[in-house]
Amino acid sequence: MSPLDEMKSVPDVSSPETEGVLELRSLRVTDSHPAGARRLVDDVSLRVGQGEILGIVGESGCGKSMTAMAIMGLLPKGCAITSGSILLGGRNISALQPSEYNRIRGKEIGMVFQDPMSSLDPTQRVGLQVADSLRVHTDTKSRAARVRVVETLESVGLPEPAKVADSYPHQLSGGMRQRVMVAMAILCGPRLLICDEPTTALDVTVQKQVLDLLRGIRDSFGTSIVLITHDFGVMARVADRVAVMYAGQLVEEAPMGDFYRSRAHPYSDALLRAVPTLHGTRSARLWAIPGTPPTPAAHREGCGFADRCVNVRADCLNAVPALAKGPSPHHRLRCLHPVEPADGASTSSTEQGVGQ
Amino acid sequence: MRLGQACVVLLIVSVLTFLLVRMLPGGPVQALLGTHNTPGAAAALEQKLGLDKPLAVQFLTWIGSLLRADLGFSYVRQSSVTSLIAASLPNSLLLGVMAFVMALLVAIPLGVYQALHPNSWSDFAATTAAFVLYSMPIFFIGALAILYLSVYHPVFPPGGVGPAGVTDLSWATRLYYAFMPATVLALVQLAVWSRYVRSSMLDTLAKDYVRTSRAQGLSMGQTVRRHGLRNASVPVIQLIGLSLPALIGGVVVVESVFNYPGMGYLLWQAAIQYDFPVILGVTVIAGLAVVLGTLLADLLHLMVDPRVRDGIG
After folding, report:
1. Are strands A332-333 and A249-255 parallel, antiparallel or unpaired?
2. In a shared domain, residues A264 and A235
3. Do residue A288 and residue A187 come from a single domain?
4. What mean pLDDT value characterizes chain B?
5. Could you tell me if A143 and A266 lie in one domain?
6. What is the largest CA-CA distance in chain B?
7. Total structural domains in chain A?
8. CATH number for A225
9. Which residues of chain B have a CB within 8 Å of the CB of A133?
10. Which of A338, B70, B218, B228 lies at a C-alpha separation of 20 to 30 Å from B134?
11. B216 touches chain A (CB under 8 A)
């Protein structure tokens, strides 16, 4: 870090509000659509504390992966951060030069991707690929790097780590490959780990193991984790706090327990009720949200969820609600007409929804 | 397995060539006798050359001697086909290898650069140039090269392997004389190969493991070197193996344009003179080269991609 950067980061660190490892401030990401730049991520503000696991949920296309790629500085061609900022440990990283960003990726932020088969180079031994992080960020000699890689592979629960290091990706199972990806992400001891749908491509028993591994990493190293998923079961198992995204915006954010007890956004409520349970009767149809999410737009009048919402009123169509304080202390909500606290309200709103 | 296939391919190639040259109008007898053509002389010559026997017998005799590494005796020139080929093969090899290396040395960096800057003006320019080069016949480019680089501006010799009458040629002289024909040959190949490299690299750069590598903190250049080149080379190796026949075909044309005494020049002369043994001999050697090249490509593929070694993918 250059002296200038340290100077810049001083006021942020001293302020009690920004103790987070990661902070997004009104982040907006747009693409370069011919009909006008569309907002893929729109005014997202988030903070992830030291050792905290933040879960971001939402449907496909809601902007959660875009948010992750923006944090990694790996937005696809044509997409760019047009306003807002990303602070890592108080340092604004959204304006870094590409070469400076290379020094952060893999070192201060690790990332685990969805599909562990395609995320590893099929032509190269796993150990060498994992060691790349070490090679570019430190001047570890290849022998020492090898030792470190094997240790890390062992620490993520891979049996016979030396043998795994000498294997090619196709010789490993899906779960083993995802453990390799996790080992790769934590090799340089990052303070932040971004996991984008890390269990989606795995079968259920392996999913649980990988989630337990992620929580174990948080517990032993104090790593902050951003977990992106569309699966509430995954979320409930590991996340401390939940952020719900819809159409590029953050619509609700609350600690895990509060969220389950007193979620207030009609979208969050609908999402939770779309999760099948073991207690329901067989004949009951699984609740589904009617309609489809809106396509990204340059500008939106009114709430993006309005045309699928059971609580929609006239004023919902006129203005985008601001992200305001929700029903519980650490709760934020972007809704003019929230649903009643879950306990009593859920049954009545179910009937409403089915009736439509 | 592959060796068996190679033998079958060579056999088919020789049968086809054997039949094709026999279908040419005219024939060696007329060509050799010219104005001395009388029925008696023709019959005598046919018998001497063994052309009076049934085709099958002629073919089996030829195959029989081929297996003993004997390619027969030229009808026209007073020497064996083997010695004619031995004299011209090194020249062609120099030309072919030189063109191959030159084409690769330009096609790979060019294709990679284009893949890293797709749809930029330089990408469009290189693509346009490639299509122009690819659509121009080799003999036309060759003639242009001779016109501009030998006639108008005498930079390179217009043909041959060395100054006339000199037999003991140095490497420098050989390379100097081979440079222009090799460049012409390389231009056409590199036009095609740079397209292969570009599209293969574009595919590779879109792969998830490239994103993984970037997420590890490798720069784009490091990622290309570490993962891009190797993965992109898999289809390129195959395609280059498949374009060897085109390269050899190009050698024939270039050698005749530049009067370069290689196998292609030999083949061209033999074809004009109905010199069957020479045509067959050169074709078999060319076929052998293609088969060997393809085997080499397969071997390389095996080395590059571990999934092929384990029998999947």
Report:
1. antiparallel
2. no
3. no
4. 89
5. no
6. 85
7. 2
8. 3.40.50.300
9. 216-217
10. B228
11. yes
Which domain range does residue B199 map to? Answer: 89-274
Is A95 within a domain?
yes
Residue B241 lies in a domain: yes
Mean pLDDT along residues B279-299: 89
**B200 at the A interface (CB within 8 A)?**
no
A chain contacts of residue B208, beta-carbon cutoff 8 Å = 113, 115, 118-119
Residue A349 confidence (pLDDT)? 38
Q: How far is A333 from chain B (nearest CA, A)?
A: 32
pLDDT tens digits, A64-105: 999 999 999 999 988 999 999 999 998 999 989 989 999 999
φ and ψ of B237, to 5 deg = -55, -45
* B165 found inside a domain: yes
Residues A174 and A309 in one domain: no
| Owning domain of residue A228 | 3-239
CB contact under 8 A, A72 and B215: yes
Domain end, chosen from A192, A207, A239, is at A239
Nearest to B216 among A98, A106, A124 (CB): A106
Q: Residue A153: inside a domain, yes or no?
A: yes
Residue at B260 is within a domain: yes
In one-letter notation, the amino acid at residue B309 is: R
Beta strands in chain A (DSSP E): 22-30, 39-48, 53-57, 80-88, 91-92, 109-112, 192-196, 224-229, 241-246, 249-255, 324-325, 332-333
At B28, the amino acid letter reads P
CB-based burial label for A332 (10 Å; 0-12, 13-18, 19+): middle
CB atoms within 10 A of CB A33: 13
| pLDDT value at B270 more than 60 | yes
CB distance A107–B217 less than 8 Å?
yes
For residue A252, being part of any structural domain is answered with no
CA distance B284 to A72: 58
Neighbour-count burial of B137, counting CB atoms closer than 10 A to its CB (0-12 exposed, 13-18 middle, 19+ buried): exposed
Chain B residues closer than 8 Å to A137 by CB: 217
Please name the member of A115, A168, A184 whose beta carbon is closest to the beta carbon of B208.
A115
CB contact under 8 A, B230 and A102: no
Whether the CA torsion A320, A323, A324, A327 is positive or negative: it is positive
Interface size A-B, in CB pairs within 8 Å, comes to 85
Residue A245 lies in a domain: no
Do A284 and A204 sit in the same domain of this protein? no
**What CATH code is carried by the domain that includes residue B257?**
1.10.3720.10
A104 lies in the same domain as A62: yes
Q: A210 and A82, same structural domain? A: yes
- The mean pLDDT of B30-46, rounded to a whole number, is 81
Residues of chain B in contact with residue A171, where contact means CB-CB under 8 angstroms, are 310
Please state the rounded mean pLDDT for residues B191-208: 94
Its pTM stands at 0.82
Contact check, Cβ <8 Å, A181/B212: yes
Per-residue model confidence (pLDDT) at position A176: 94
Residue B27 lies in a domain: no
Contact B310 A170 (CB under 8 A): yes
Check whether residue A187 and residue A52 sit in a common domain: yes
Best mutation target, A97, A123, A124, A192, to test chain B (most B CBs within 10 A): A123
Test A106 with B305 for CB contact under 8 angstroms.
no
Which ranges of chain A have pLDDT less than 50? 1-18, 344-356
Which residue shows structure tokens 């998830």?
A: B208
| Reported ipTM | 0.84
Å between A40 CA and nearest CA of chain B:
20
The structural domain count of chain B equals 1
Give the separation between CA B195 and CA B177, rounded to whole angstroms. Answer: 29
pLDDT class for B215, splitting at 50, 70, 90? very high
The residue written with tokens 């797709």 in the block is B118
